[in-house]
Amino acid sequence: MLSANRRRARNDRLAGFLIRGTSLIVLAAVAGMLIQLIWTAVPLFKTLDINEISDPQVLDGPVVLAERSPDWVSPDVVASTWLEQPSRRSWAAVSADGRLIGEFSERTTPDGEWSNPRNLPSISLAPGSMVRFVRTPRDSLLTVSAAGAYRIFNAEGVLSHEGTLKPNQTWQFLTGAGGILGASFDSLDHWHWVRSGDAAYFEEHWYLSIPQGLKHWSVSPEGKNILFVDNNGGVTLVSLLTGEQLFHYVQRPSVNAVGWSGSNSFFTEDEHNTRRHWALTGNLDNIDLERLFAPVQYVNDAEGAYVWQPLPPALGQAARLSITPLLLGTLKASVLALLLAVPIGVGAAAFVGYFMRPSYRNRIKPVIEMLAAFPTVVLGAVFALLIAPYFLSFMASWLGALLITPLGIIIAATIWRRLPSANKLESGFSSLPLWLLPLGAMLLLLGGYLGHYVEAQWLNGDLLATLSLAYEFDYQQRNALLVGTALGIAIIPTIFTVAEDAINAVPKPMASGSLALGASQWLSFRTIVFPIAAPGIFAAVLLGFGRAVGETMILLLLSGNAANADWNPLIALRSVAATLAIEMPDAPVEGSHFHVLIVAALALFAISFIVNTLAQLLKRRLTKHRVYTV
Amino acid sequence: MKARLVTLSLDRKTIALLMLCFFSHSSLAQQSLRITGSDTLAPVLTAWLEVFKTRHIGLRIELQSTGSATVPTALAEGTVDIGAMSRPMTSDEISLFANRRGFMPRAIAIARDSLAIIVHPSNPIRDIALNDLDRIFSRQVLCSGSSPLVNWREIGQVDGNFESPGSPIDTFGRTATSGSYGYFKQVALCGGDYDPSMMEFEGFASLVDAIANSESGIGYTGFRWVDQRVKPLALRIPAAEGATLTVDHMHPRYPLNRSMYLYWVQAPNTQLSSIQCEFLVFSQTAMAQQMVVAEGLTAITGSADYQSRAQRHHVICE
């Protein structure tokens, strides 16, 4: 007998070890995932470093995209620029006597013959002018003189813009939308094409003073970074997109020239014309926390903005990787979902857990728990197909119902209380649905109709159009309110189940005691049951929030995926989870885009981890509380 | 004897059989054809090569879909025979090739893909200026440097010809992973950023569906997804001497028409290898173009220019 007991105790102990061990393994797996994510994101923040390439045969020369003109450009001119499109082509150059020359021709089919070349009007330019076809403004000719005066002509030679840059510099056109780089003996500065209101002009983007004196510089093939050498032999890497110094070192013997041999390798040439090759390692895209979370002024921007547009990286453009709009989108959707789900979920939980007869409770609980298992992708698809197109047009009715229903119920309750009825106490709360459900349905319909009526009578039949005209706000077909509604419906079962468990777990004798002392059912719920269950209810809300934050499919299908940094609940949003689902498969694993997505995933992980841990801790506190009070 | 009309449905097997009759001379054993390039063109090339293989028994074929951007380098280095690109080479890419090889790459158009600008059928406008697309879709408005357009009323003012709905403009587009997203950004927005308010959809079908249900919506989509629930707009583009020209997608100067090309290396005054030549000629045949249509792209109109097979051969291969 004794030995059997001892054996059982030993087995229990063993089982306990096993269970504890298993939970430790689960914890370790979660921690491992976290570490893995952090490990993947770390290269993003690695500082730049250089290594000398000892065997530079592979890089026997710089990549030069020299302007080798096609055969239709006049061979007699030097330093010509040209533009070729499916149905139009033109070239231009500065002639020996300082005039703008060139010609353009068109063809009627994209693959047909070119006809009628016509000359550009001959325009005399300021001394030392250079000319280049640029993309912004569309298909234009940009000329810059030595004194820094710029003139912009369209492809047929008609002047469209003019202005001045700083004098006394040498100018270099940058590829793509990169703008103009100015260099003097002790500075570098970058000018970009910006628009402000209806005016567009070249503006100084950044200015870098080089007190040691500028000796030589070179722009990287992608037009993202500049290397320069100063008179002290210092080699500096500067981001073209922000003007920030990324890297600096001093090389001896003194360097005379630098050049790029690839997008992340370069060479230096010293006074004895010896070439040394270097490879850059680390984050060349210059991404730091500031660029992820703060507004950034990109090339061609008049002011800083939060932009998420990682693809495709064009020449001279930085990937727009601001994760603020994504986090804001996730937060916006989750908060709106909670606003809908908490009153309904917690209210239903209170009724089912405390007021309802247990036999009904046992029937209704599994039904709602089954709803929790409803696939969210189906919910999202149904909303996208059936509700999204009409959501805004029913906004007035929806708002009317939302306003009238609670109001109506409060009024009905007041009237009920005044009614001199003998059997009021007997029927109690458990027969409430008998009255409340039809009343609620009627109030919903009434509110909807009233909203519609008000809209038709006083708001020109279109609530949002009228109000948006008067108060200047935006609204979109796919909006946060719609997402919040669908997401709210998805998380109601979660909140309900957990909150109901918490309320039902409050020991019955406690409420009975207060009832025996003459408290009403409502009073004993409000003062006894609810305070005890509160941590559990809060945990339910947090669990619902955690689920909303991680939800992907509903947001992917409904949210419109527009990455705006705006609190307006009537416009679209883009969530972190949906962005991960859309872009992760197409992001190159070594690139900044991928690493930033990992950072976003980490932020998501952190939010749900913290929220869920908090929920579990609160739940545990509730259990302890119960043991203590019984 | 009674003449019987046999209707042949042109499935791949039938085309293959026809091809077999079409080229009836000897097969070229132990030859190889290396093709690389565009993802968009991959289904077309696969279909073509399936047919082409049956004609050239023993031909070793390598087909890689590595994206259009890889073609110029691969051609310049001579690692492929034919490069397929869903856009023409940029001037930088042509320079890169020309610097390496000393002559220009050659190209032939094989298919076309058009983007349609669509609005709700109740929208009164019929056409829109190319630069207005930039003002609607871009936050930077780099093409013209004018202020952005946010309300249909403003477009009504621009045109001065209709009573507009007066509601804010809702923009619809594809997610960044779509090729059309990048193409529209380059051509219509001059490389500028999309406005952050643009709603992004995972597919063209859901995008068209969203616009069909949005009276204030405008978006871009491939032409094969356009149906009667939405209205495609014609585009106004600048023409010579400051005039404008209104073009629809059938017009050769429709700006959102992208031609797709086969590029190859051929030094001036040299002959192309016969297998390369056969394949290039094949791309221009009516059969090959039917397969282009079957894959959801538009056939090229230029193929009618080459009257006979002999003439085609002459234009392409010599």
Helix percent of chain B reads 25-40%
Give me the oligomer status. heterodimer
**Number of helices in the DSSP assignment of chain B:** 11
**Radius of gyration of chain B, in angstroms, nearest whole number:** 23 Å
Low-confidence stretches of chain B: 1-10, 23-29, 158-164, 303-307
Number of domains of chain B: 2
Compute the average pLDDT of chain B: 80
Shape of chain B: elongated
What is the CATH first-level class name of the largest domain in chain B? Alpha Beta
Structural class of chain A, please? alpha+beta
Question: How would you sum up this structure, described in words?
Answer:
The complex is a heterodimer of chains A (630) and B (318). Chain A is built from 15 helices and 23 strands. By secondary structure, chain A is of the alpha+beta class. Chain A is elongated and about 105 Å long. The model of chain A is unreliable at 58-67 (pLDDT under 50). Helix content of chain B is 33%, strand content 21%. In chain B, strand 6 (170-174), helix 7 and strand 7 (199-201) form a beta-alpha-beta unit. In chain B, helix 9 (274-283) crosses helix 11 (309-317). At the A-B interface, strand 2, strand 22, helix 5 and helix 9 of A face helix 4, helix 7, strand 7 and helix 8 of B.
Structure keywords:
heterodimer, A: 630 residues, alpha+beta, five-stranded antiparallel β-sheet, four-stranded antiparallel β-sheet, 21% strand, elongated, B: 318 residues, alpha/beta, D-Maltodextrin-Binding Protein, domain 2, eleven-stranded mixed β-sheet, 11 helices, 33% helix
